[in-house]
Amino acid sequence: MTTTSSAPGKVYLFGEHAVVYGEPAVPCAIERRALVTVAGRDDDRVRVSADDLSLDGFTVEYGSSSDGKPDVDVPTPLIEAAMGYVEEALAQARDAADRPDAGFDVEIESEIPLGAGLGSSAAVAVAGIDAATRELGVELDPRDVADRAYQVEHEVQDGQASRADTFCSAMGGAVRVEGDDCETMAAPDLPFVVGYDGASHDTGELVAGVRALRDEFGFASDTVAAIGDLVREGEQALADGDLETLGRLMNFNHGLLSALGVSSRSLDNLVWAARDGGALGAKLTGAGGGGCIVALDEGDGVETALSLSPECEESFSAELATEGVREE
Ligand code: PMV
């Protein structure tokens, strides 16, 4: 038997980084999904193969789940990082089904570039937990999947993770996360356009950088608090379906993230290309450093402007994914 589940990636409309300090954030799921197919095995070994946009494709086979480590060299740091999420997701599924020795063949197909601010690792963790638990005969509520996927990110990212990415991927749509409080929100059609500079980032390192800045300069905490105020304002604009105000607040949010040192030249260039193309607003999404920007655009000028930008590896319009994790 095999089981396939999928879960969407996300963009941050507002609030990344500040969410780590208890401010609210509003991530939105987008129609780019990670698919994880799991087959149970007769032994306790694990075999993982992946075909991801930002990977060339790889297969890794582990020894027994009790020693739990790959018995072949893992080809790149990016793949090593991806394997960490898969290992922990399988551990969560074994725990949920009370089957500590369960072995699995796992196949990952993802439309979401890794480490680029689109929540690829959260989507793989969410879909992986859902598929592996179903394969073991257990069906979890999406909120339980979100909670377990958060434990995965928390473990892999050395405690530096908010619930935002995993809750958004499990539930779909627009969500609001503030500390441990997570809720879904009503949202209008949001015409997102994503620009990708082809780079990947290390979320843990960027989060640590913001923490160091706050420790060095007390006023950096005011910047984090200002992002929280902006998010609260943005929630009202979202409820009103006021795209123009949402766009202005996205621009403001990008400026504050730049002040916290997490933008980059190429992300700034993509943000400006999107604005030149007529965006209502544009900002980096996720941890920053490199990866993706998100813009709001009611026409098609932004996608064209981004595709003409030398820094842009890929641009695409991304519909809000109203469905979160699901069995395929
Ligand atoms: O780039 P991503 O998708 O890993 O997003 C990170 C978002 C942060 O707020 C910086 C960290 C977090 O866990 O919320």
Throw out a few tags for this protein.
Alpha-Beta Plaits; 25% strand; globular; 4-stranded antiparallel β-sheet; alpha+beta; 328 residues; single chain; nucleotide-binding; Ribosomal Protein S5, domain 2; magnesium; 2 domains; binds (3R)-3-hydroxy-3-methyl-5-(phosphonooxy)pentanoic acid
- Sketch the topology as an H/E string, one letter per element: EEEEHEHHHEEEHHHHEEHEE
| CATH fold field value of the largest domain | Ribosomal Protein S5, domain 2
Helicity, as a percent range: 40-55%
Q: Mind describing the biggest β-sheet? A: 6 strands, mixed
What low-confidence regions span 5 or more consecutive residues with pLDDT below 50? Answer: none
**Could you give the count of β-strands?**
12
Please render the helix and strand layout as text.
Layout: E1 2-14, E2 26-40, E3 45-52, E4 58-64, H1 77-97, E5 104-110, H2 120-135, H3 142-156, H4 164-171, E6 174-178, E7 181-185, E8 192-196, H5 203-216, H6 220-240, H7 243-259, H8 265-276, E9 281-284, E10 292-296, H9 301-308, E11 314-318, E12 326-327
Parallel strand pairs: 3-5
Antiparallel strand pairs: 1-2, 1-12, 2-5, 3-4, 6-7, 8-10, 8-11, 9-10
Helix pairs in contact: 1-2, 1-3, 2-3, 2-4, 3-4, 6-7, 8-9
(3R)-3-hydroxy-3-methyl-5-(phosphonooxy)pentanoic acid binds at residues 16-17, 19-20, 117, 119, 161-162, 164-165, 203, 207, 286-287.
Summarize the structure.
The chain is an alpha+beta fold and 328 residues long. It is 40% helix and 25% strand. Helix 2 crosses helix 3 (142-156).
